[in-house]
């Protein structure tokens, strides 16, 4: 959590102030008035002990006539106070519902901490690791990713939402020691996200406003598979490319995409995601057995709108990761059954961000969508005869290949296309 100034806190609703105070380990924050609560949050963010709320002046001694009624009033006051305390406890329990992984039952009650004793500074150490989100919205900072360990740090759902954290983000921040019945330390705030200050990431430009350049960093596949090898040398692509694998039915588009996925899985620096939108049921099973598990999958029986809805959130997540400096490759099988606008939107998300990350989209389609930087056209006749690579070199091509392979290699690709055209 980045440091919030007083004006931002004053504009925040009370529920958000309570969430922030809980993460900062402010004792008794629910009993504080709004102004005192803001003072305490500001003080804790600066590393100071939160100021105590001003004590109410002592009530004057009751007159003699009222002395008999005083015990009754005190009893009613105690009953009312206990009711309010019970309500506060129920609210706290409701707030923590869904965080079962963070808490374990305590066999015996422990004494309550002394409110007069200041909590130990949370900034004594800095935890750094990779975010893994849980279905309930919270998550963990994995210190030794991808495997869980006892050193992992719990991230509250409020932190995840406030900082828009994604699985795979590398973050750092100070943890606090586990409280009673908690299994893991908890993150006090997020200082950095993917090497950048959290405040800069939160205030970053819109993805569509980020400057883009033609791909200039080639993705090397390094495979001996004939189809993958031909794609790498005759239709090269790089980080930020928009690639479609096109051809008629039974040209081998899905198989080519699966072989590319196997080669790309060897690149640890790339974040890979697979979306199956409108494929055959048998292909769903084939992908499940492959090196990459689909993050979303619907068969061709689903309507075009359902297919688009399965794809959209994955594209949005990939855009956010790229905007934060990550390199993402999104493989889509297929764009053929999507509404045209949804297909163009998914493909257009790919870009090489100047001075930042990249989003590469590799998708199958019946024909080019428009706006591709690389088109890999497959020949159904060659595929049906088992002649691989079944690439239609004349219909294939890469825009500005010299930025990826150099002038000499780009000229060699051009000569190969001319020779293929003359043979036809």
Describe the structure.
36% of the residues lie in helices and 17% in strands. The strands form three sheets. Strands 9, 10, 11, 12, 13, 14, 15, 16 and 17 form a nine-stranded mixed beta sheet that branches. It is elongated. A hairpin with a 4-residue loop joins strand 14 and strand 15 (358-365). With 424 residues, the protein is an alpha/beta fold. The chain folds into three domains: 1-50, Transcription Termination Factor Rho, Rna-binding Domain, Chain A, Domain 1; 122-202, Beta Barrel (OB fold (Dihydrolipoamide Acetyltransferase, E2P)); 212-423, P-loop containing nucleotide triphosphate hydrolases (Rossmann fold), CATH 3.40.50.300. It has 13 helices and 17 strands. The chain has helices at 6-11, 14-23, 34-45, 69-95, 157-163, 198-202, 226-234, 253-264, 281-288, 304-323, 340-348, 380-384, 402-423, and strands spanning 127-133, 139-142, 153-155, 170-173, 175-176, 186-187, 192-193, 196-197, 212-213, 242-246, 271-279, 296-299, 327-333, 351-353, 358-365, 374-377, 397-398.
Q: Features of this protein?
A:
424 residues, alpha/beta, Transcription Termination Factor Rho, Rna-binding Domain, Chain A, Domain 1, OB fold (Dihydrolipoamide Acetyltransferase, E2P), Rossmann fold, 3 domains, six-stranded antiparallel β-sheet, 17% strand
């Amino acid at each position: 959590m980045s440091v919030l100034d007083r004006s931002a806190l004053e504009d925040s609703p009370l529920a958000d102030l309570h969430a922030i105070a809980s993460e900062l380990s402010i004792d008794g924050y629910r009993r504080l008035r709004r102004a005192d609560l803001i003072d305490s949050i500001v003080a804790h963010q600066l590393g100071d002990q939160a100021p105590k709320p001003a004590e109410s002046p002592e009530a004057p001694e009751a007159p003699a006539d009222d002395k008999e009624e005083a015990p009754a009033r005190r009893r009613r006051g105690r009953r009312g106070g206990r009711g309010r305390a019970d309500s506060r406890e129920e609210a706290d329990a409701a707030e923590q519902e869904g965080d079962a992984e963070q808490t374990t039952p305590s066999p015996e009650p422990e004494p309550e901490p002394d409110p007069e004793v200041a909590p130990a500074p949370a900034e004594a150490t800095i935890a750094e690791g990779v975010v893994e989100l849980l279905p309930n919205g919270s998550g963990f900072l994995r210190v030794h990713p991808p495997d869980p360990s006892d050193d992992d740090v719990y991230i509250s759902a409020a932190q995840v939402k406030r900082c828009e954290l994604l699985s795979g983000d590398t973050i750092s921040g100070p943890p606090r020691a586990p409280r009673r019945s908690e299994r893991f330390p908890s993150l006090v705030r997020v200082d950095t996200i993917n090497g950048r200050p959290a405040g800069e990431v939160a205030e970053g430009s819109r993805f569509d406003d980020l400057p883009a350049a033609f791909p200039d960093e080639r993705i090397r596949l390094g495979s001996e598979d004939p189809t993958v090898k031909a794609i790498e040398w005759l239709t090269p692509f790089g980080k930020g490319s928009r690639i479609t694998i096109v051809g008629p039915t039974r040209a081998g588009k899905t198989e080519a995409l699966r072989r590319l996925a196997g080669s790309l899985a060897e690149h640890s620096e790339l974040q890979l995601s697979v979306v199956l939108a409108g494929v055959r049921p048998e292909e769903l099973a084939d992908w499940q057995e492959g090196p990459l598990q689909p993050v979303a999958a619907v068969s061709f029986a689903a309507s075009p709108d359902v297919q688009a809805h399965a794809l959209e959130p994955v594209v949005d997540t990939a855009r956010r990761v790229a905007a934060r400096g990550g390199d993402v490759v999104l493989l889509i099988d297929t764009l053929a059954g999507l509404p045209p606008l949804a297909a163009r939107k998914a493909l257009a998300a790919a870009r090489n961000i100047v001075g930042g990350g990249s989003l590469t989209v590799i998708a199958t389609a019946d024909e080019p969508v428009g706006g591709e930087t690389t088109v890999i056209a497959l020949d159904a006749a060659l595929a049906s005869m088992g002649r691989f690579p079944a690439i239609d070199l004349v219909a294939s091509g890469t825009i500005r290949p010299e930025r990826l392979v150099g002038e000499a290699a780009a000229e060699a690709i051009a000569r190969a296309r001319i020779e293929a055209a003359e043979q036809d």
